[in-house]
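Thread: Modeling a multi-component assembly for a lab meeting

Hi all, long-time lurker, first post. My supervisor asked me to bring a structural picture of a complex we are working on to next week's group meeting, and I have zero experience with this. I have the sequence lines for every component (721 residues in total). Could someone generate the structure of the whole assembly? Inputs are pasted exactly as I received them:
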Amino acid sequence: MTRYVYYLMVVNMLVNVFAYVPSILIEHRFDGAIMSILLGTLIGSVLLLLFVGIFNRYPAQGLPELIGQSPFWLRAPVLFGFSWIWFAAGAMTLLAFNNVTIRYINPDISGIHMMFIYSVVVLVILAFLGSDKLLMLLEMILAINLPLVLLIMYHAYINKAITWPSIMEVLSYFPDPPNWRAVAGVTFTFSGYIGLLVFHRVINGKIPLRKLWALPVLGLVNLATTFLIPVGFHGADGVGDFTYPWVATADALRMDYAPIERLITVFLVLYISIALVSVILAWHVSFELLQSVFRLPGRSRKVWARARFAMLFTYGTVIIWMENQFRQEDIFAFGEAWLQIRFVAELMLACVLIWLAMRRRAST
Amino acid sequence: MAVGVLFVLAGCGYKDIDKRFFVVSIGVDKAVKEELAYTVILKLAVPQANIKSGAEEFILVKEQTNSITEAIRIAKAKVDKELDFSHAKLIVFGKEVAKGDMRETIDFFTRRRDIQGIAWVGVADPTAEEVLALKPKSERLPSNSLFLSFGDTGTVSPYIITEYMFSFRKRLYERGLDPILPIIRVDGSNLFAIDHSAVFDKKRMQLVLSPKETALYSVLSGRANRADIKIKRENGGEFFLAMDESHTSIKLKRGAEGWMRIAIDMEVEGVVEEVKGSLPANELGEARKEAEETLQKEALNLLLKLQKHGLDPFGIGLRYRGSHIGRSDWDDWTTHYPDAAFDVRVDVIIQTTGGLH
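Re: Modeling a multi-component assembly
Sure thing. I ran the full set together rather than chain by chain. Output:
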């Protein structure tokens, strides 16, 4: 079962190829993006090792179980806070992809309607599938999509239209000191380990730490792709003007003999399915954490079912409200603000975990 | 219940294919009226039951306005079906428009979601209208012969520069890499001639390259690796070398006092395709030298011509930027490029003299 850790990490990396991270990195391409990528990779890898290391000690336990014996004043804010932070993770991905859908796939549908369709699909899956089933869903989606995504990436790398000197120009800015916003963005691509907070309950067995070396390497390659390929296609100077650099990049791909000449359609459909899975996973984490705050012994099943429904209903309402309120610019502002809050929160969570582990060790 | 809601949501956002007009190519000319900016020409394909060469039908919708958006709005009011731009694979700019601010002109095309980034771009001489109105005898579908010329599936020629919209935009903005577009002319009444090319600065068309220069550019920049070159022999005869393979490397060298040398190494392998006069086997070594000298001279002339106009479609400036750390590299380049020296070295290998020797 330990292979699911890799899936959790990979899906998080993949989904970030598309929306916020490339925009932030490209914005800072002349002031510290390269150093931020390196520093972010380092921080992300350390956090990954830390989270896996701590969860390895407590087989089949998630964060709610780990934190279960600590006092209410610590337990409730951590679980509740992280639940909403991770809800926002799903929300920002969903908002961005909803925006892409109504902009590029079906411009005749209104944003609210499309969001309604997406959120109903996500919430229904959330209501009926447990952690183990979701991991299997993730495996299937990756098995179907990953080869096609790799094909498109390969096609992008060998494309004649890519100007390598532009990429070299951006790389030549490596001495610039790292940038806070970019580091916050970069570390998010490694945040797949947050899934362990809940999914560790169904991951049996120890996750071998030594074999995790592949993930930082993959993450680095992923970041290089997400950042440098748009630069190669649209130039070091011109790439900054695009709302979605990767939509513009996918639009620059052409396969002469493929059934569909324009790869952008294929790319968007692939990415929407990957994004939906990632939203489902994020919200599942959020949902489970939220439930664990309110789970008290002695409540009847019927009450509990109603409470679950109310929680999911709240998720739906909030996301529809957000879609109604946010325009494209707001979505980006929200995403960026969230990335920074999440980075801080994740570091705090790491401290809490270390503290918990030390206390447990002391008590045994 | 949730699934039930989905059925209620199903709208009618989609128009059937028979309610659509497919725009196959877009032309932008300078308006005839003084006070207006553009004449926009949309070429709409008219579907036909049986497809025959030369019997294709299309409609040209022409609008004179100040912006491309307005032109399309008015065009929409003139036709009975929805305009669909998803198959607009070619965008041609009239020569006069190309001499204006191109950054402004292409803004519409990169901003709109339904215009392809992989649409081919060209300059029409003299007007886009003339190019779009032509109906070549061999054409089965509207605009298809130009699509075949630019794509890799049809003819391949070093004289035809292929440029996509996204790449043209990149070059308009990238310091150190200047845009180059093919020039499409109507030759006689029934054929396109695409053998010249236009080099742009960061805004407008500046220089027209002859067919010979265009082919040399294609080879030197790696866009094409097959081209024919005519080599005059010292004994008065001449022969033609068909390149099979070519490889160019550009290196920048910089001395202490700020002078710059641009070293260009070219390796060419080719086949003798036609001989006028004589080319005996024992003179092959000499012929090779002559070929090297000819190519070297021609390449140097092209580079010097571009340097004189301050243009750089090879992207040498971009290489300079990429290989130097710091923010001042672009200023360095602009001060040194005008008096940089070129070192062109050519290596020719003649594989065979063909079926005759």
